[in-house]
Structures are given as structure tokens and as C-alpha cells.
Amino acid sequence: MTTGKINVSVENIFPLIKKFLYNDHEIFLRELISNGTDATLKLKHLTNIGEAKVEYGNPILEVKIDKEGKKLHIIDQGIGMTSEEVEKYINQLAFSGAEEFLEKYKDTAKDSGIIGHFGLGFYSAFMVASKVEIITKSYKDEPAAHWTCDGSPEFSLEPADKTTRGTEIILHIAEDSLEFLEDFKIRELLNKYNKFMPIPIKFGTTTETLPKPEDAPEDYTTETIEVDNIINNPNPAWTKQPADLNEEDYKAFYHELYPMQFEEPLFNIHLNVDYPFNLTGILYFPKLGSDMQIQKDKIQLYQNQVFVTDNVEGIVPEFLMMLRGVVDSPDIPLNVSRSGLQADGAVKKISNYITRKVADKLKSLFNENREDFESKWNDIKIVLEYGMLSEDKFYEKAGAFVLYPTVDDKYYTLEELKENLKDAQTDKDGKLVVLYAGNKEAQHSYIEIAKEKGYQVLLLDSPIISHLIQKLENDNKDLTFVRVDSDHIDNLIKKDEVVISKLSEDQQNNLKSAVEAVVNKQTYTVQLEALDSQAAPFIITQPEFMRRMKEMSQTGGGGMFGMGNMPEMYNLVVNTNSPLASTILNTEDKTNQEHLVKQALDLAKLSQNLLKGEALTTFVKRSFEMIK
């Protein structure tokens, strides 16, 4: 029997490990199973190249709870260790066996899937255990070894009578960590961290019903057998080639990732690159609609099939964090406890690659089946619009597939839009005016007026649309977007024809005074306009610039400081050529004149959905009185 001190530079490093190195105690199981997986994959590699003269077989890992003995066992059938290797790998802290193995076999082992990087994973056991034992037998023909340590720098190492290849780690669970002796807790951790580990993991047993024989008698009793309960899928979809998967495979894997998600994903993007970095994964577009308040942290980051985190900020571009799926890369630099990212140039390269891959996939989906792409547009537009605003590389590619729908359900790319609208909607200054509505129902009357003129109106209703059209205008100097209710239609797209007012200047001044005597001047600015006599007498509009700046301020990242809190301001356009304008002027009784102005103003408010509460009640009452 050998005793000694673990070779560490701090007298007692275990409290430091427990307190500082790993901030989440539950990851001890992930680390120990990762070590067992490494040991198994090393054996597989050595048998493949003929260096290990043993049968690889079908090894598994096993996790067992001994609740009565307050012990947790993690057992592998991997490469095992000799006494000398235990001394080297376990007692020389932070000397990574995996690193040494990869260095030795770097030419042949680069695709072997070795997980370990730090050599510290084993010591995470002391976060939950008061004593740790290792019973291990190497694949080499050497005696087994038994290592014991109680969390102090002292350890013991002696021969063991283990006859089968592999390693068993026994954790004597500490009094403050007894939750890790509960079946449900271990099952929860295995499901979280080890659901897709590359070696089958056994946790207990389950019963299976044997198929009924064809010649079974009528009184045949169904037979069951007890089998290993394998809790993981060692060959998840993202580890396979896209050519080997069909649409049903992708959907099945989506539901494996998100068992409580009953809706089908719209489509998926399979990531598969091995240069200049290694990355695989599958991203899914779920139905998103126009809601910006969507829970993120739905994409899972793995490293060689070991779950690391669902906070993928930095790796996945921010606009794609509303998607779901898996990203797996051994090249993502993690901190020493494998629980967080380190700042690194490789991370930015990975993010750029994902952006490009998503853009290319969207373009191919658009080209292959435009009708299907259009049908899904409202469910994905918020992601794509956000991407155009936040990622220049995505913005550059987006022109090929980002759509601009009309209120009549036609879909145009930006170039198609310019081509289709230029004849009718270019103003007298040569600027193409794109009319749009934010709400088809609320702005219905304005939309209809525009359509009567032969104009097309887009339906742009996402919460960040003001930011996007501002960017599009900056990049397309002869293009401007105006909401269809921001002015009278003749002012939105100014042509050369001029309409003359029927009223003299004095009459116009009197009309303006009569209207201003009734309206709230803090909310409404009265404008007299000589319009077609058939146009509405009173029209309420909201100036494009003010409204847009206010919306941009409210959604952040644009607009003028403080504008998001400004009160709503409107223009009241009075058509001086309307019969009602003349009627108001010719009504000598001030009370009747006031009633006419109020009624016309309320009708205009009603068309903008601005008449509510007491004001709506008063309007209805006044209307009934007027038709008695």
C-alpha cells in the first residue's frame, strides 16, 4: 500500500475547488461521466489502430445509487489505469490525461471525440463527496489499483481485486449534498448534461414486454424481461450527415430536444463544418410571429456531445437566439470549469459562420419554394428584420429573400417592390414613395383611399419596423417609406397637378378660427388643404417623422432622446373644397357651428380609432340628437 500527498501548490486546494472553481455543484456528474466517456473512446481508438490487443465490444457507462451506504457509483468499461497512471493523472492536479493522449496520438486521434481538456474534472467530485474512491484496472495486463482520498491532500493507493477492465469511481456523498442520492435528482442531471453522450449510459433497469409468438395459445400470458435503462441517445441527429436524414428525422429530433413543444418547427438549418474550425448542429425556426418578448436561451451548446450551457451569447448571433436547437463544437474555448465561454477570436468566426449559413439556407428555401416561404413569412419575419438591423453581413445577403407584403397579400423583395411601384408611386421630385400600414383594420379608410388612387400599400407591422425602414432609406436615397395615415394621400405622393381652393383667403382664415376654437391645440395642429371636393372634409394624420422617431425611441436604439414619452400629436387636415367647409362657414349660429365642427372632428377621430370612453359616448348621443 502506498500513501502520499497529492502534488498541489496550495496546502488544501479542495475547499477552493468547492467554493470558487465550480460555481454549480451539480456539474460533478457531467465531469465524471465525461471522464468515463473519454476512457471508453480512448480504448476504441487504441483498438482501432491495433495498439490495444483487446476486444472493444459494446461498452457502457453505469451510474448507481447506494442510498443506504450514502454512495454514488460511476462505472465505465474503458481504458482503465495502472497504479503508475493513477499516480500521474490523479495525483498531479491539472495534468490532463486527455491532453497528453491527444498530443501523443494527434495525427490519428483528432476525430476520436475525446472530451477532457483540463484534468480538473475529476476533482469536482469533492464538491459533493467527503471521500472518493477509484477502483481501476487497465486494459494492459497489470494489477488493478484502489485509490482513496478524504478531501485532504493525503491519499492511499493499494492493489485491488478488480478483474474487469475499466474504472469505478465511488463518491461518499457529504451530509450537505444528500440530494444527489435521490433517483429523481440524478435522472434530472443525466437528462440535462448527458442526454446525447456518445457512449450508452445505464441508470437502473426497466421492463420490456416480449412480442407475442405467432403460434401462442389463446390463454398466453404476456412475458416481460428486465433490461438496462439507457438514458441517452448516443447518436443524435446533429452528429449525422444531412444526406442521411429526412424531414421526419429532423422533426423527431426537435421533439427529443423539446418534449413539451407540441408545435412543429417551420424549417431547420443543419450546420456542418470542419474548417477553419469544427462545428456541427441543427437550428430550428419555430413560429415566432411579431412578439419581441420571446424567451431566449433555447439553443443548447454542447462540446463533443456534452451539454455545456443554454446561454449561447457570443457564439450564436443575437438575432438568432430566438431560434431553437443545438450547436456542438470542440473548438469553442471554455473556462476551466467548462461552464462558460472565454473571449476569443474563434468565437466571432463561429458566429459569422452561423450568420452566413443561415442566410444561405434562407435564400435556398426562397428560391426552391417561394410560395411556401411566403406562407411562413409572418412567423419568421421578426428574426430576419432584427438580423438586418444587427448584423451587417446578414443585411448584405437579406435582399435576396426578405419580403415586403402588401395589405392584399402580395409579397415583394425590395428590388421587385421598386420595379412594381415606380410608375405609379414616384413623386414629382423623382422619389419612389412606398406607402405602408401598421394595422390593416385601424387604417382601413386610409388604405382604401390610397387604393382608389391606384397605389399599393404594404403591411409592415413588426415592433422594429421604424428602425428597419430608416436603415433602408439611408441605403436607398431615392426611396422613402410613409405610413398611409401620415398625411392626405395627395400630400404623401405629390404630383404636378395643383388643386385650387374654392375659398378666399379671408374665408380660409375664418374657417381655421372656427375649427381651432373647438379642437385641443396641444394635440391637434389645424391645416387647411385644397383637396378634391369628394375627399373627406376632416382628416386626422400623424406626421411620419414624429411618429417614427417616437416608435424608434420606445423600442430602443434609435430616435431622439426622450421622444418615446412625448404625448401623441396629430394634424387635422380640413378640406377647404368640401361642402362641409362651406356649411361651417355659412352657419351663423355659433352653437350650431360648434356642433358641426365637433361632429366632423369626432368622425375623423373615429376613422383613426381615437374616439373612446366618454368622448365616444358624447359623440353617439350628439349623433342621435342630430337625426331626430
Question: TL;DR of this structure?
Answer:
The chain has four domains: 2-204, 2-Layer Sandwich (Heat Shock Protein 90); 237-375, Ribosomal Protein S5, domain 2 (2-Layer Sandwich); 403-496, Rossmann fold, CATH 3.40.50; 499-628, Four Helix Bundle (Hemerythrin (Met), subunit A) (Up-down Bundle), CATH 1.20.120.790.
Characterization of the model:
The chain is built from 19 helices and 22 strands. It is an alpha+beta fold and 628 residues long. It folds into 4 domains: 2-204, Histidine kinase-like ATPase, C-terminal domain (Heat Shock Protein 90), CATH 3.30.565.10; 237-375, 2-Layer Sandwich (Ribosomal Protein S5, domain 2); 403-496, Rossmann fold (3-Layer(aba) Sandwich); 499-628, Four Helix Bundle (Hemerythrin (Met), subunit A) (Up-down Bundle). A hairpin with a 5-residue loop joins β15 and β16 (411-412). The longest helix is centred in the middle third of the chain and has 24 residues, at 345-368. The termini are far apart.
Key features of this structure:
628 residues, alpha+beta, Heat Shock Protein 90, Ribosomal Protein S5, domain 2, Rossmann fold, 4 domains, nine-stranded mixed beta sheet, five-stranded mixed beta sheet, 22 strands, 35% helix, HATPase_C_sf, ATP binding, coiled coil, unfolded protein binding
Point out poorly predicted stretches: 94-98, 114-119, 335-339
Give the second-level CATH assignment, the architecture of the largest domain.
Answer: 2-Layer Sandwich
C-alpha geometry? elongated
Mean pLDDT metric = 85
CATH topology of the largest domain: Heat Shock Protein 90
Q: Strands across the major sheet, in which order?
A: 1-6-5-4-7-3-2-8-9
Q: What's the CATH first level of the largest domain?
A: Alpha Beta
Number of H/I helices: 19
Total strand segments? 22
Cα radius of gyration in angstroms: 36 Å
- For this entry, what is the oligomeric state of its chains? single chain
Question: Which structural class do you get from the secondary structure elements?
Answer: alpha+beta
Beta-strand level of the residues, as a percent range? 15-25%
Main β-sheet, in a few words?
Answer: 9 strands, mixed
Helix percentage: 25-40%
CATH H-level homologous superfamily name of the largest domain: Histidine kinase-like ATPase, C-terminal domain
- Distance from N terminus to C terminus (CA atoms, Å) equals 111 Å
Number of domains: 4
